[in-house]
Structures are given as structure tokens and as C-alpha cells.
Amino acid sequence: MTMATALVTGSSAGIGEEFAYALAREHYELVLIARRDERLKQVAEKARILGSGKVTTIAADLARRETPAAICRQLAEQNIAIDYLVNNAGFGTRGRFAELALERELEEIDLNVGALVAMTRLFVPAMVERRHGTIINVASTAGFQPLPFMATYSATKAYIINFSLAIAAELRGTGVTILALCPGPTWSEFQQVAKIEDARTPRFMFMDSATVAAQGIDAARRGKSLHVNGVMNLMLAEVARVSPRNLVARVAANFYRPRRS
User: Fold this and answer.
1) Which long-range contacts (CB under 8 A, 24 or more apart) does 20-25 make?
2) pLDDT category, 194, cuts 50, 70, 90?
3) What pLDDT is attached to residue 232?
């Protein structure tokens, strides 16, 4: 009997790593993708111990436009069909937009949005043909509001939410589920990469990565197309949705303004 295979991007740490472990416990075979080869191998070894029979690791930079197609070709050559796709890879930048490095902002868009769109487009046709499949696109509660000092990040997450909901409607009746997963503040390496350790977000609002991943898997299993992690995050997302957007932006600025500003 052929086991189902799950592909997880950004799986060397944080939410992506926990998705790998959670799916391993459900005995999925895994394809793990991230840039850090040694760290990927460590995650793969633990995933095997947890129950994944076969784990393939691919060290690659998904921010490069040619990478998703190259990965798709590699898996086709190895006769690995993807039944479950978790588009988790992404990062954030923080600071005054006029002062941030343009190259880094464009890299953020290429990874957070470009790679996610490419991976979805490359793997969904085979899922539709087989009439079963699951895609989880990791967005963020940041996508429900404009975030001054994290403008590019929040815009990419808004794109992911709207893109996922639109494709979910297109896929209705095909047997393929697509979920926009929207965690709020989560304990991971994200804070260090985005340089937001000093943001004024209350500590009680943070969730752990394992809980975020587990809730995402459960929401996808129930056929949801949108899931916000945590009651408090859901309430704040609803408030942001119905409030004047210029007011939301001004309030958010107080939380994410770099202290030196």
C-alpha cells in the first residue's frame, strides 16, 4: 500500500518543523524543504522516529523563481506524488519602509507570495486529477490589517488569505481542500529574523508552534478554508475587519514602531 506524502516548506524550524512532526505522527511520508541542510536532516531524523516511513529532504531557496519548478521536476523523476502541501516558508521585515533594503523587501514578496503561488499551481492539478488532496497556506492575523513598520509582511499575508479563499471556492467539489491558516504571535525564530523581539505584543497572546500546526491540520481535516488560531486572535481580526482601516493602521503602529523611532 502506497503511503500518502506531505510536502512542508520552511520545515527547518518553527511552525513548519511542527507540521513535519505532526504529520509524521499520522504516518505521512514527508518531503521537507528549507535552506538549512543540516537542520533539515535533524528534523527528518526526528520525523522518522515519530512515525514517518520515508523522509526526503531538499535544501533549496524558494525565493528564487526557478526553485519551485525544479523541485516539482525532481519529485516527478523520483515518482513522489504530493497528497498534502503545507506552504509555510516565509519571513518578515521590520522598520520604516523608506529605510529598508529594497532587495530584502522583494525577496520577502518572492518567498511569501511567489513561492506559495508557484507551489500551489504546480501541485494542485495532480490533486484535482486524483480527486483528493490538502493544501495549507500559512498566512497570519497580520493579513487582516495594515501593519506600519511591517508593511510588506502584512501585505503578503493579506494576499495569501485572499488567494487561498478564492482558490478554495474554485476547488469546491474536486475533493481538494485548501486552507488559509492565520496564526497570531507564535514562539519561533520569526521574531529574531523580523527583529520584533521588542514589539509591544502582550506575552499572553503568544501561542506555541506545535499548537498552531495541530489546529491547522484539524481545520483542514474539517474542510475549513480559513482558520484563525486562538479566540483572542479571532476577536482582534474581527475588530480589525470592521474598524476604519486608517484607524487600525495608527493603532498597529504603536505596537510595531521600532523603539529607536
Assistant:
1) 20/47, 21/46, 21/47, 21/50, 21/210, 21/213, 22/210, 22/213, 22/214, 22/217, 23/52, 23/84, 23/86, 23/217, 24/48, 24/50, 24/51, 24/52, 24/55, 25/50, 25/51
2) very low
3) 78
Chain Cα centroid distance, residue 75? 21
Task: Please answer whether residues 30 and 54 qualify as being in contact, where contact means their C-beta atoms are separated by less than 8 angstroms.
Answer: yes
Which of 91-105, 176-190, 228-242 has the least mean pLDDT? 228-242
The three-state secondary structure class of 258 is coil
Residue in this structure with the C-alpha cell 501585505, named with its chain if needed: 155
Residues annotated as part of the active site = 153
- Distances from the Cα of 2 to the Cα of 5, 38, 144, angstroms: 9, 28, 40
Q: Is 41 inside any structural domain?
A: yes
In a domain, 133, yes or no: yes
Is residue 196 scored above 80 in pLDDT?
no
115 DSSP 8-state letter: I
How do residues 86-136 score in pLDDT, each as one tens digit? 999 999 999 999 999 999 999 999 999 999 999 999 999 999 999 999 999
pTM of the model: 0.89
Q: What is the CATH number of the domain that holds 237?
A: 3.40.50.720
Residue 101 lies in a domain: yes
* Cell 535544501, residue located: 59
- Per-residue confidence band for 176, with pLDDT thresholds at 50, 70 and 90: very high
Q: What Å distances lie between residue 167 and 129, 131, 196, 226, CA to CA? A: 16, 15, 32, 12
User: In angstroms, rounded to a whole number, what is the distance separating the alpha carbons of residues 64 and 123?
Assistant: 18
